[in-house]
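Quick one: structure for this chain?
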Amino acid sequence: MQITQIKEDISISYISALCAYAGIAYEVVRHDEDSTDGILRKRFLLDGKRKFNAELRIQLKCTSSPSQYTDNGDTLTYKLKAKNYNDLCLPATTPIILGLLILPEDENLWINWTREELLIKGCMYWAEFSEETESENKGTVNIKINKKNVINTESLQNLLERIAKEEWP
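Got it. Here's what it folds into:
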């Protein structure tokens, strides 16, 4: 298997595990012409009585290469394909975010398994571009991601709840 496919599978496993633990349904999208790799779904009870089904699409990226990203302290700069960036900028009825998993440069550190735990060493960050202008670039677009935007069970719950309450973006 090629290294890019391994990284893709690790990013899917990462988000799938977080969603499972948070009680969020995660569906892998097999054909992602619109840069949607997965859909997160959760039903919320709003105002103690009204049910709302919230959905969020996600485009997953994974890198371990310092040539692909720069850690600027409070932000990350990542080289995203212009096609993906432009897809993330398009208005849509179902919001979409970018999920960027940063793995260690040494691939021997990516996954650690023992009888007691399965550890994925890395962190996934999210960014949202629906209010940005599409790029004229043909190759890549340098995007900035705030490192406060960590993807974990709490942030996934918050994102979906904001969608349910129509507070997005």
